Each structure stands twice: as C-alpha cells, then as structure tokens.
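Need residues for this backbone.
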C-alpha cells in the first residue's frame, strides 16, 4: 500500500475515505443494535442463574474455609469473619450489573468491529461478509462467556478455597495482625479514602482533556498519513472508528481511575500496619497521588515526574528522587532499541490480536500439551481412563496439571541447553525481556520460570536424567528424594534429587494457578477430546477395551462388584465417544 505524499494527496485520501467509512459505520451500528439485546440477554440470564444458584454454597463455604484455615492468625480470622457479609452480599449485585454492561457492550461492539474487518484485503465476497460477519459469532461468543464464568464460579472458586484450607508447613507462620495497630490503621484508612479519592479524581479529570486531544491528534495523523497501526488499507476504517470511540475510552479511563482510588486509599491502613507508623501512612496518602500523576504523565508522554510532593513512606528504601533518576537513565538506555522498532503490519484485526505475546504463549502451551499428550499416550504414561475422567469429571490432575507441567519443564530444559537469555517456546520463537509485553500478570507468570531455568542450567541435567524426569513428573509424588529409588534415577545424590523435586513441585504449583483461569478449563476439555480421538484412531482405546473385557471375564467369579466396575468403564467410554462426536469442531 503506497502512503500518500504531499498535502493534496493526503487531503484527497481523507475525503475519499469518508463516504466509505460512514456507510460501514451505519451498517455496523444497525447490526450492533440488533445483536446487543440477544447477546446481552444470554450473558445476563446465564451468569445470573450461575450467581444465584451457587450463592448459598459460596456464602457457606467461604465462611467455613475462613474459619478452618491455618494460614491466618486468630485476630485476622475474626476480623475477616466479621467483615465477610458485606462483600458476599454485594457480590451478586455487582456481578449481575457487570454482566449486563459487559453483555451489552460485547453484543454491540463485536458486530461493529466485525463489519469493518469484513473489508480486509484477504476477505472474499466483502459485500456478503459485511452483513453476516459478527452476528452468529457474537452469539456463540456470549455462550462461551457464560461457560467460562461458570467454570470460574464452580471450579476455580472451590480450588482457591481448597488451597486456603491446606495444611501450613511447620516453619511457616500464619498471617496475623496486632490489635494495638488497629486504631492507627483505621484512622489512616478513614483519612486516606476520602483524600485520595478526591485528589486522584481531580488529577484524572485534569489530565483527561490531554488524553482526548493527544489521542485524536495521533489518530488523525496516522489516518491521513497511513502511518503507525493504520499502515494497511484494511486498518483505515478502524482509524475512523477509533476516532469516534476515543472519547468513550477517555471516559472509561477516568472511571477506572476513580474506582482504583478507593483501593489506593484503603492501602494506607496496610502501610501503617507494615511500617508500624501512622506518620508513614499519612506520607503514603500524599505520595500515592504523586505516583498516580507520574504514571499518567508517562502514559500520555507529558512532562516526566510529578509536580506534587512525594514523601518517603517506607523505611530503609531508596528516596523518590533517586528512584526517578534511575528510571530516567534506564529509559534513556533502552531508547535506542525502542527507536529502531517499526510498527508491525497486519492484515486483519484478529491477526493483530494474535500477535500479542500472551496469546501466543497461551496457544503454545496448549499446542505443546497436545503434542506431549499424544506422545505420552503412546508410551502409556497417560491412560485412557485419565482421558475419560478428564472429559466426564474435568478433575483429572494428571492431564490438567502434570501434563502442562511436563510441557513447561521441556521448555525450560531446552532453554537451559541452548543457553538462551529467555525461554525458547519453539524452534523460531524465543521470549526475552525485549519482546515480551510489559504486563504485570505475564511477568508474574514468566518471572518464576526464568528463575527455574537458571536453576536447571546450574544442575546440568544429562539425557538419562531428562528421560527419567518424564515418568517422575507424570507418576511420582516428588515429596522425598527416596521416592525416586523405584524408577532408578541415575543420580544417587539426595541433594540433587531434592533440588529437582523442588523444581517439579514449583511447576505443579504454577500450573495449578493457571488451571484456575476460566479459559484454561474450556480449552483443556477440548484437548482431552482430541486425545480421546487419537486413542480411538490409534487403537489404544481398542486395546484398553480388550484388556478390560479379559480382566472382567477372568474376575467374573469374584463377585458382582468387579462386574460393576467393568460396566462403569464401558459407560464412560461410550459417553465420551458420544460427546466427542457431537461436539463438532473440537480443535
């Protein structure tokens, strides 16, 4: 696509774009107004049924788990039991209201965006797709939202509660509060909430015109000059759509700032308890406003730093001025690298979204689990019963936790062998500090993996040990070094065994946390169905049925209980096959 040069060429490009854009906009608005009530209704009624149906169980089980946990001390437990009714009573109201807003927003904007995407260069029969795209897919997406929400409420919640009830190691002290600090904590909270809410709201409102005008200026420049994200022809309509919707983004940013200010004000009480000083809590109330303004200035590329005072609210920490100076030097050092990066070209909006690194890593994880699952199925480390249990019950730990843990461990082993600075997730992709996104959730996931990779690199695991690790991850409990004697692990050093077992336990903990993400369960159910079809096509299922029938005939005289087990085995096999065949496209 040739970029227009000169004022007249850019003006003509802009004027010729307007009729085309407004026709697409009116069609998208019409589709959105028709689909939004249906999609919103699906999400609201589906989520409301889940919320109301599970609320009594959530209420009672939350109280029981908080009362039974050993991870918090007596005073904090009493305080939690007293304050729990408020969030538990407000939760259904906020969740249903959020489902309503989210459902209407998703049902309106998804068809609108799909209308503009239908004019992409790779799309054939654009006129037909402009009317059709985004209607049925949005309704299906609404059902997927309800399913993911159900997984979170029914599975992820109880998983969190089970973790809360786990036994505490003897050397771990429970989290507790001191009664003598509570008056000063409450005082700091009572002062921090109104002060920070008012001041942060003023800063957000003061900066919102800058965000609106600078955003419009950048979008118009990219639209007329075909630069930045609008380099391709398909992205030009999105430029006009982004210009129209940009005020809505500014309003949402201001609302988010106001909501977050409540939590920032509440944190003043935490600072008082941690530092055992009311004065430092008051210093935090003033300092957090300065931190918020500096964050907004960095986001809008305004003047660096903040004109507001920032007293130090932590003991034995770097003064704020030195901290800003260090960040400035770090930004200047990385500026040469960032200036060399060019905007990535994209063909469609979906392709652009797929280029975000968290999505790529998420897709890689499930693709790696699929490949390793096929291999483990052939080797007998994954049994057909495990697949059936995962499909019918959804709680097979070997597939949902140990299989992803082994896939990630393979990635760490490959990264350590290649002496890579980051993580080698495929033959052509390596995640490094320069190309992964600056996302706190992603850094929370990738940070521990980098530490584990360095530990594995220091252990220098050979091929024989690596071959044994596969069976140890899938079948062993990995609690004591002596438990590896049965598999004849090459190294007899108990210290080395303990280090490897600690790495495996850490991976299992990371995967357990990942398994609570709603999309994880849905995608892993599809993966289990793929492995079941692999077992059917490869004959592994047939061999399993033959062995089960032979075992049942050989034990038929031992009592009716064995025959019942054989019937249950055939039952899940028939049900699993029926579910797979009726699910359509499971990939």
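Answer:
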């Amino acid at each position: 696509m040739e970029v227009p040069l000169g004022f007249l060429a850019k003006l003509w490009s802009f004027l010729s774009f307007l009729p085309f854009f407004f026709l697409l906009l009116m069609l998208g608005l019409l589709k959105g107004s028709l689909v939004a009530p249906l999609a919103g209704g699906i999400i609201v009624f589906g989520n409301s049924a889940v919320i109301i149906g599970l609320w009594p169980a959530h209420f009672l089980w939350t109280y029981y788990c908080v009362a039974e946990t050993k991870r918090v001390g007596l005073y904090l437990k009493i305080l939690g039991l007293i304050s729990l009714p408020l969030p538990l009573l407000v939760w259904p109201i906020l969740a249903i209201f959020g489902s309503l807003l989210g459902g209407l927003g998703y049902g309106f904007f998804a068809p609108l965006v799909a209308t503009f995407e239908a004019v992409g260069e790779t799309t054939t029969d654009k006129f037909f797709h402009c009317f059709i795209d985004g209607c049925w897919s949005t309704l299906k997406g609404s059902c997927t939202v309800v399913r993911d929400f159900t997984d979170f409420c029914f599975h992820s919640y109880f998983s969190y509660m089970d973790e809360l009830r786990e036994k505490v190691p003897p050397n771990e002290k429970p989290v507790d509060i001191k009664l003598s600090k509570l008056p000063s904590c409450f005082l700091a909270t009572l002062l921090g909430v109104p002060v920070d809410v008012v001041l942060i709201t003023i800063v957000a409102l003061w900066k919102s015109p800058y965000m609106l005008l600078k955003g419009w200026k950048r979008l118009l420049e990219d639209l007329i000059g075909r630069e930045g994200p609008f380099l391709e022809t398909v992205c030009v309509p999105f430029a006009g759509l982004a210009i129209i919707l940009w005020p809505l983004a500014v309003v949402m940013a201001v609302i988010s700032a106001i909501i977050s200010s409540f939590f920032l004000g509440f944190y003043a009480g935490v600072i008082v308890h941690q530092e055992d000083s009311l004065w430092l809590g008051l210093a935090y109330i003033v300092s957090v406003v300065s931190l918020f303004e500096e964050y907004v200035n960095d986001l809008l590329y305004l003047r660096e730093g903040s004109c507001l005072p920032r007293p130090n609210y932590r003991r034995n920490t770097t003064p704020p001025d030195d901290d800003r100076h260090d960040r400035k030097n770090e930004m200047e050092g990385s500026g040469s690298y960032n200036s060399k990066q060019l905007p990535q070209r994209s063909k469609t909006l979906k392709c652009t979204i797929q280029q975000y690194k968290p999505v790529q890593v998420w897709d890689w994880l499930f693709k790696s689990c699929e490949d390793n699952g096929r291999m483990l199925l052939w080797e007998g480390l994954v049994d057909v019963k495990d697949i059936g249990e995962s499909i019918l019950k959804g709680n097979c730990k070997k597939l949902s936790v140990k299989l992803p843990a082994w896939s990630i461990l393979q990635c760490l082993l490959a990264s350590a062998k290649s002496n890579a600075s980051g993580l080698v997730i495929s033959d052509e992709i390596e995640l490094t500090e320069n190309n992964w996104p600056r996302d706190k959730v992603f850094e929370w996931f990738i940070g521990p993996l980098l530490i584990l990779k360095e530990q594995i690199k220091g252990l220098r695991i050979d091929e024989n040990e690596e071959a044994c690790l596969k069976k140890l991850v899938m079948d062993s409990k990995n609690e004591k070094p002596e438990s590896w004697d049965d598999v004849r692990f090459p190294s007899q050093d108990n210290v080395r065994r303990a280090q490897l077992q600690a790495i495996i336990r850490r991976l299992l903990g990371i995967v357990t946390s990942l398994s609570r993400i709603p999309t994880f369960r849905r995608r892993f159910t599809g993966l289990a169905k793929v492995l079941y079809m692999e077992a059917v096509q490869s004959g592994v299922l047939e061999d399993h049925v033959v062995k089960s029938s032979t075992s049942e005939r050989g034990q038929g005289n031992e009592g009716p209980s064995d025959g019942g087990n054989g019937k249950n085995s055939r039952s899940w096999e028939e049900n699993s096959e029926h579910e797979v065949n009726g699910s359509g496209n499971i990939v």
